[in-house]
Amino acid sequence: MQEDKASGSKSKRQKNNAKGNIGSASFIDSSFSGVETAVMIAPLKSEPGSGSTGLMLENVKFTNVGKGVADTAGKTLLSGGSKRVESWATGPIYSPKREFSMGADAPKYKREISLLDTKGGLEGAPYFERPKPQYEGNSASDFVHLKDLGAKGEFTSSPFCGFH
């Protein structure tokens, strides 16, 4: 058993009993600057169910990066430097059948033109992004609760009666 010294609680998780590092991560329209290693993963194994991490980099910019992708055993899978990574992947790739990539350029995905920001600062026409509304300048009295206008909130009558 492991004990958390801060809380005194015990967990049934044993030290070093992990079976793998199953998961995936995608970095899309992203940038890394001035870091030694942009992405660190566990060593890859091509056998299905072995616990390897699937990783996708699409339109990623490196600026003064030591290693783009490396594993915890010290192997560099993608070099760093200052460059743009158009499309690169590790893990299962289906094109059209399942193949396992130990880290290589990947097929490019067609980006729908209406979803792209062609005026953005990142090369490669990143997906359009719009900031969410911010309300820090508003007081609580600027907001209305529909129940105050007659909506019941019991999920059987229409909430729009108080909204009209």
Q: Strand tally, please? A: 7
Q: How many domains make up the 3D coordinates? A: 2
Please state roughly what percent of the residues sit in beta strands, choosing from under 5%, 5-15%, 15-25%, 25-35%, 35-45% or over 45%: 35-45%
The number of helical runs is 0
Instruction: Bin the helical content.
Output: under 10%
**Termini gap:** 60 Å
Oligomer: single chain
Output the helix-strand order.
Answer: EEEEEEE
Low-confidence stretches: 1-7, 9-18
Tell me about this structure.
The protein is an all-beta fold and 164 residues long. The chain folds into two domains: 20-106, no CATH class; 133-164, no CATH class. It contains no helices and seven strands. It has strands at residues 2-3, 10-11, 23-33, 37-41, 53-71, 76-94, 98-105. The strands form two sheets. Strands 3, 4, 5, 6 and 7 form a five-stranded mixed beta sheet that branches. Strands 1-2 form a two-stranded antiparallel ribbon. Strand 6 and strand 7 form a beta hairpin. It starts with a strand and ends in a 59-residue tail after the last strand. Residues 1-7 and 9-18 have low confidence and may be disordered.
Topology:
Layout: E1 2-3, E2 10-11, E3 23-33, E4 37-41, E5 53-71, E6 76-94, E7 98-105
Parallel strand pairs: 3-5, 4-5
Antiparallel strand pairs: 1-2, 5-6, 6-7
